[in-house]
Amino acid sequence: MVLIESNAQRRKELATALRSTGTMVVAASRMAEVERWPIGDIVVVESSFFTPLWNEVGATHVVVLADSPALGRHAVASGASAWVPRHCEPGDLLALIQTLPDVGVASAAAFPRGRSAQPTHLSVEPSPLQQAPALAAGQAR
Fold first, then answer.
1. Are 130 and 77 in contact (CB under 8 A)?
2. CATH number attached to the domain at 2-109+122-136
């Protein structure tokens, strides 16, 4: 599992909780510190470091630590598997990870690469670009 959290204390707290389940965790404060592609791994990332490219480089799931519900919903609409409030209890993050399809917390790296279906229990709102396709194409209304 890859964990990217810029706050050192929070990163340590989350990494400790994840490791307590037997999960191997690469914890980093920013994307540049991650030395390998997350092929077959779950990526847990704060919203400022979320990109849909995590899925394209092999992450099985991407869970966003969102600073606000709007950022969480936007991340899911952009390809994240799920989101939790950035300052949630570590147990809440663990519980969410365990609900991800085809993924067990202790063996996330054992699953085949590629993106699984998004959980159906999450509410997803379209991003502004999805609401107005003309804007995405650079066209004025």
1. yes
2. 3.40.50.2300
pLDDT at residue 1 in the model? 94
The residue to which tokens 């510190």 are assigned: 33
CA dihedral 83, 39, 114, 87 (to 10 degrees): 0
In the chain, which residue ranges form alpha helices assigned H by DSSP?
A: 8-19, 53-56, 69-77, 90-99, 128-131, 133-136
pLDDT of 87: 93
Angle at 25 between CA 51 and CA 116, to 5 degrees: 50
Nearest alpha carbon to residue 75 among 101, 43, 106, 108: 43
In the chain, where are the structural domains located?
Answer: 2-109+122-136
114/17 Cα distance (integer angstroms): 26
Comparing CA positions, the residue from 55, 25, 21, 42 lying closest to residue 110 is 42
Q: How confident is the model at residue 24 (pLDDT cuts 50, 70, 90)?
A: very high
The residues with which 62 forms a beta bridge, in sequence order, are 43
